User: Which sequence fits this backbone?
């Protein structure tokens, strides 16, 4: 009798996850191959689809690089320094998680729009288009994924403390050497974790990118936008094939995170 | 190398950690910065190391102004209470860190690391990771790491504070012997007066951001400058309006000249020690420490009348000094008439 409660609870949780997550996602994969391999291969021969996947890879790549470099910098600033406005900055870092991506897209369009944006007009005058162009997509994707690296590193930095860094300094290491040889190894798993999450989030971004890209087919259409386009045009295999590609990236990312987590838990126990 | 601290002040917000402190440390000495927690002694050590910057004042190391130098340019070795081991490096790599930073030839680094690991008795552990060492071993590794770069000054911040009593005792003796061998100017912070008295050549007593007294262990114990220093270095009690150490009071069974009469209120035997409280009219009870043999010879029991007088050469101070009360760990209890408790807690005062 004592075991019944947990068993019921477990069944509820499993049913919930299957109905909401596992089953729909698995349908994406089966849907892609509903009519065999040929339509799927056709989809990946379509230059428009390839272009979209390439654009997504570029945007996600930049988002990961920018968020890693600035994420480490901002996390160090927030944890290791005290300055007026520090708490405001910490709250600001969480904003992209709280605000709808569509709102983010609109905000970026307002600032960088070539017609009337505060920064967009001067940039357009020197020949640099942000909105309806790759830089805008990179910007939106980076914005959306901004907190992920920072939030992963901050608790690690706080737990490690400053004594190791101070010891390194007293042993003759300058700030850069101390960062490279002491701080970076200490936060490396948190950093990898954050980068993987950032990548998964960046690859899947839809709303903000839709607003800033203008959805110009073959030019500013990312993979997620292509999925929508194909689906609307009743190309179900095509939509499912691209969707399955995106889902695979996320699943691989989550698998890596799971492995890392198991590893760190073993290390600390 | 000598260290000179002149007029150093340091505040954290509205809290004054150091208030116009000046200390001179002799080359080659082993100096203890002793005082209650929060008294400013760790801050002073960190300012010497360059891990904190003074608001005002000057730090001179070996005659050169080091006030504005970053820590990596000061030539100091620093040892932390919680070891600050680099967990992703082996013990040998930890010790080699400072030498690798200085890009010394590999052969030289290996020879020096081997030598240091022998010095700290860790020659078997070079390939282990710090997490596989005990606390005492980790602290010895941290010491070897600090010594590897041949610092002109070795600074230790509560180096044995995180260790259990037995290991602490061993490491204390070992630090003393190490200093006799290596002769590097060494400054360590401690709140344990026994540790300071046992290990150091020179003690600087610091409390509430000020230097209370500087001197050799004997000088401080025998000639304390004020009631705070006296009560911090060991238990104190009051006799005839003066502060005095409980073992500096003679208990007599017969009346003699200048002796104060009192009634035995309480006797507590701990090992070879007999702690006696004697009630004297109109004053807080006097705490006296006798050996078991002395108590037996005296033959006094609770309720008996005895006569108390100061032993020859006893250090005493006038009691009416307001500077004692706030932070003196033992005195308030004595003044409050709980001499026995003050005695029991006095062997390791902590602020």
Assistant:
């Amino acid at each position: 009798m004592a075991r019944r409660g947990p068993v019921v609870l477990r069944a509820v949780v499993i049913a919930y996850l299957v109905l909401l997550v596992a089953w729909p996602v698995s349908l994406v994969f089966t849907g892609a191959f509903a009519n065999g391999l040929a339509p799927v291969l056709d989809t990946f021969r379509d230059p428009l689809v390839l272009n979209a996947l390439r654009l997504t890879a570029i945007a996600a790549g930049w988002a990961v690089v920018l968020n890693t470099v600035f994420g480490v910098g901002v996390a160090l600033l927030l944890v290791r320094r005290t300055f007026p406005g520090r708490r405001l900055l910490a709250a600001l870092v969480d904003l992209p998680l709280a605000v709808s991506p569509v709102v983010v897209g609109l905000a970026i369009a307002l600032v960088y729009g070539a017609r009337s944006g505060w920064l967009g007009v001067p940039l357009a005058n020197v020949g640099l288009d942000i909105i309806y162009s790759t830089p805008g997509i990179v910007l939106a994707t980076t914005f959306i994924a901004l907190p992920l690296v920072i939030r992963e590193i901050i608790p690690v930095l706080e737990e490690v403390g400053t004594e190791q860094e101070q010891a390194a300094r007293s042993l003759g290491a300058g700030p850069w050497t101390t960062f490279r040889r002491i701080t970076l190894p200490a936060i490396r798993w948190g950093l990898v974790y954050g980068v993987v999450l950032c990548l998964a989030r960046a690859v899947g971004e839809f709303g903000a990118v839709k607003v800033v890209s203008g959805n110009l087919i073959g030019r500013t259409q990312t993979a997620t936008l292509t999925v929508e386009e194909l689906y609307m045009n009743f190309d179900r295999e095509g939509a499912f094939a691209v969707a399955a590609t995106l889902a695979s990236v996320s699943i691989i990312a989550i698998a890596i995170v799971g492995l890392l987590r198991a590893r760190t838990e073993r290390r600390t126990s | 190398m000598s260290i000179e601290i002149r007029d150093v002040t340091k505040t954290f917000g509205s809290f004054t950690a150091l208030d116009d402190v000046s200390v001179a440390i002799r080359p080659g000495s082993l100096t203890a910065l002793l005082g209650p927690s929060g008294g400013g002694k760790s801050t002073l050590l960190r300012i010497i190391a360059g891990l904190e910057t003074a608001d005002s004042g000057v730090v001179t190391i070996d005659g050169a102004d080091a006030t504005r130098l970053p820590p990596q340019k000061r030539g100091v070795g620093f040892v932390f209470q919680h070891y600050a081991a680099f967990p992703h490096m082996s013990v040998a790599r930890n010790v080699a860190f400072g030498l690798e930073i200085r890009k010394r030839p590999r052969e030289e680094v290996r020879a020096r690391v081997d030598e240091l690991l022998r010095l700290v008795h860790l020659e078997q552990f070079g390939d282990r990771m710090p997490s596989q060492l005990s606390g005492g071993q980790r602290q010895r590794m941290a010491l070897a790491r600090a010594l590897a770069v041949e610092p002109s000054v070795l600074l230790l911040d509560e180096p044995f504070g995180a260790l259990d009593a037995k290991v602490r005792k061993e490491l204390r003796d070992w630090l003393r012997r190490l200093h006799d061998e290596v002769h590097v100017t060494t400054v360590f912070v401690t709140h344990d007066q026994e540790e300071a008295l046992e290990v150091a050549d020179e003690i600087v007593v610091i409390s509430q951001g000020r230097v209370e007294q500087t001197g050799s262990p004997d000088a401080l114990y025998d000639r304390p400058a004020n009631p705070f220093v006296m009560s911090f270095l060991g238990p104190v009690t009051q006799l005839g309006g003066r502060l005095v150490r409980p073992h500096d009071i003679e208990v007599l069974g017969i009346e003699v000249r200048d002796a104060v009469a009192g009634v035995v209120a309480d006797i507590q035997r701990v090992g070879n020690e007999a702690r006696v409280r004697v009630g004297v009219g109109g004053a807080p009870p006097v705490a006296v420490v006798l050996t078991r043999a002395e108590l037996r010879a005296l033959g006094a029991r609770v309720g008996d009348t005895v006569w108390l007088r100061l032993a020859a050469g006893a250090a005493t101070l006038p009691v009416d000094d307001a500077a004692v009360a706030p932070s003196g760990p033992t005195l308030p209890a004595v003044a409050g008439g709980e001499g026995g408790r003050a005695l029991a807690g006095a062997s390791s005062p902590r602020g």
